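User: I'm curious whether this sequence folds into something compact or stays loose and floppy. Could you predict its structure so I can see for myself?
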Amino acid sequence: MTATATEDLGGYHICRDKERLWAAALQLSKNYDCAGNFSDDRKGREYIQIFNMSQEQDETDDDFSKDFYEIIDEFFNIYDNLNEKN
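Assistant: Here's the prediction. I'll summarize afterward.
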């Protein structure tokens, strides 16, 4: 999942400020002690893959969804707080 996933369709952008997007992604990767994987998509746009999440076989959907939500919420808290500093 990407924060700009609708840009190919001409829809809205979730994170319009690319500089803050990169900074928030890097901060989140540091929070989880991940190096981050820098790459380009098929249109040559840069992106960072922070980590993969997969649901364990014995993990409930509710527990997995809660963990996923917490990480997404943490990312947007970082992103929003970077905005407040500027």
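Summary: The longest strand covers residues 37-40. The chain has a mean pLDDT of 82.
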